[in-house]
Automatic annotation (TrEMBL):
Record protein name field: Transcriptional regulator
Lineage top rank: taxon: Bacteria
DNA-binding as UniProt keyword: yes
Species assigned in the record: Micromonospora sonchi
SUPFAM superfamilies listed in its UniProt record: ARM repeat, Putative DNA-binding domain
Length: 334
């Protein structure tokens, strides 16, 4: 079979077939009387073998070695190809993400594109100061794609930079909530906690709904962050978790402050006092926890809290009784 026919049947150009010949990869076994290359069926089979190996990413040199070296073992080479392919996919994925974010910024011209690229590079900088400046400038100068801000805040370890990123993200309103919601279920605990902290700084009903949902999160730290944020927003769903925090001495002062904020609503004050009393009576036997619960009653107004403190002043646990008596004295002096 002449070279033109081989090219048509194999899909390999005549020029490439000549190149294979010059490299010694496929040398036609025959020549016509006019000196034209003539390929046998075995030559054509070898061409298809070459193309198959090239489709795996092998160089022509590696293809020749694979076909001609009897001692060649493919395992090491295949492992190398897997590593190189993964690296290439990662690089292409990163490029696709960058392009998508630039597109989301809706640039009006190439100057906008360049500014967005510079901002994205700054958000990924190794310098904490540069990352912080990028977060702040994303609000005042070059708007950053929300997806980029969310990725940055979920991965940020520097507290100052994280604070700037949360503030910048909050300026975008609800735009980043869906991505942050996914962060609440991330496999890495720190990512889950950064997600709930970021949601807590975003105002509005949608963020509040997400925080309510976070009260049932499997991560206790996420539940606690959510409860503190909800308490500040006046959401009573947070009360059980806040009381748990007081008992467990986990940010108990902040939890008591949140209960105090909720109790500023007279209609809720007695309900909160009743819950604290129930926990004192049935929820724990540890003296220190009962003391913290009694202390939490100090800033809960209303008759239910006053009655509870009066009863606790005679509690059989002397530390609890003294705490309650002292709080009653302070309340009476107001």
């Amino acid at each position: 079979m002449l070279i033109g026919e081989v090219a048509r049947r194999s899909g390999v150009s005549a020029r490439m077939l000549r190149h294979y010949d010059s490299l010694g990869l496929v040398r036609p076994t025959g020549r016509t009387g006019s000196g034209y290359r003539e390929y046998s069926n075995e030559d054509i089979r070898r061409i298809f073998h070459i193309e198959s190996l090239r489709s795996l990413g092998l160089s022509l040199r590696e293809v020749g070695r694979a076909l001609d070296d009897p001692g060649f073992t493919p395992a090491t080479l295949v492992d190398d190809l897997i590593r190189h392919t993964r690296a290439r996919i990662a690089a292409e994925t990163e490029l696709l993400t960058r392009l998508r974010r630039i597109g989301a910024a809706e640039p009006a011209g190439w100057e906008d594109v360049l500014q967005t690229v510079a901002l994205l590079q700054a958000l990924g900088s190794e310098s904490a100061g540069r990352r912080q400046r990028a977060a702040l400038s994303s609000v005042s100068e070059v708007p950053a794609p929300v997806e980029a801000l969310v990725e940055a805040v979920l991965n940020e370890t520097d507290p100052n930079v994280a604070g700037a990123l949360r503030w910048a993200l909050a300026q975008s309103g609800d735009a980043g909530l869906a991505l942050l919601a996914a962060g609440l279920d991330a496999p890495v605990a720190e990512v889950r906690r950064r997600a709930v902290q970021s949601i807590a700084e975003i105002p509005g009903d949608a963020a509040t709904a997400l925080l309510r949902h976070a009260l049932a999160n499997s991560d206790v730290v996420v539940r606690r962050y959510a409860a503190l944020a909800l308490g500040a927003r006046g959401v009573t769903d947070a009360v059980p978790t806040l009381i748990d925090m007081i008992v467990e001495e986990a940010n108990d002062v902040d939890a008591a402050d949140a209960l105090s904020v909720l109790a500023s609503d007279a209609a809720l004050a007695d309900q909160i006092a009743t819950r604290l009393v129930d926990r004192l009576a049935h929820g724990t036997a540890e003296s220190s926890a009962r003391q913290r619960l009694a202390q939490a009653l100090a800033d809960i107004p209303g008759p239910a809290a006053s009655r509870a403190l009066a009863e606790l002043s005679a509690d059989e646990d002397r530390a609890v009784a003294l705490t309650a008596a002292y709080i009653r004295k302070l309340r009476d002096a107001r």
